[in-house]
Amino acid sequence: MDLTIYLSFIGVSLLLIIAPGPDNIFVMAQSISYGKKEGIATACGLCSGVTIHTLAASIGLSAILYKSDVAFSILKYLGAFYLLYLAYQAFRSSSEVGSFTKPKKQTLPALYRRGFLMNVLNPKVSLFFLAFLPQFINKSGMAVPLQMIILGLTFMVLTLIVFSIIAIFAGSLGEKLLQNEKSSKAINLAQGIIFTAIGLKLFFMDR
Fold first, then answer.
1. pLDDT given for residue 100 in this prediction
2. What is the pTM of this model?
């Protein structure tokens, strides 16, 4: 693999990862609500989803998804309904009567699964890798599928680093905000709004 092309891939990837989007907003929301470690667990789940999409793109499954309206729609609606379910849980927590309603603590495996499902059930991610990775392929170099896997894993590592940094800073902010009841309820409400917005965007998404 050409070093110049690889370095340019890293630069472009970092710009894409840092840019505000559903995934980093999702990590931020989970970190503020539950803590730094929990935010990093969410980021690990999202990045595990990236590996699935990378493998799908490298062996041609993403191309099949792109051509199949049924497969695309099934994956899209599953992802949308899952996010709307998370929104319902967050709204319910924000409206619970009590003296102090901190967000209900989530286990690390549960948040890992939450991040994984959000990413892997978004067909747009598969189509993104299908379009993005080939632009940095050196056809005169090693096998194309292997290059795509290397690029995808690089993207995953960069994503994990950036999202972990976001989780640490957002988690620190959350520790301060959760000291009072009003902030705690507001965080639950904000989570619900974020999940609803991402879920509806996915639901009405076209290819």
1. 47
2. 0.80
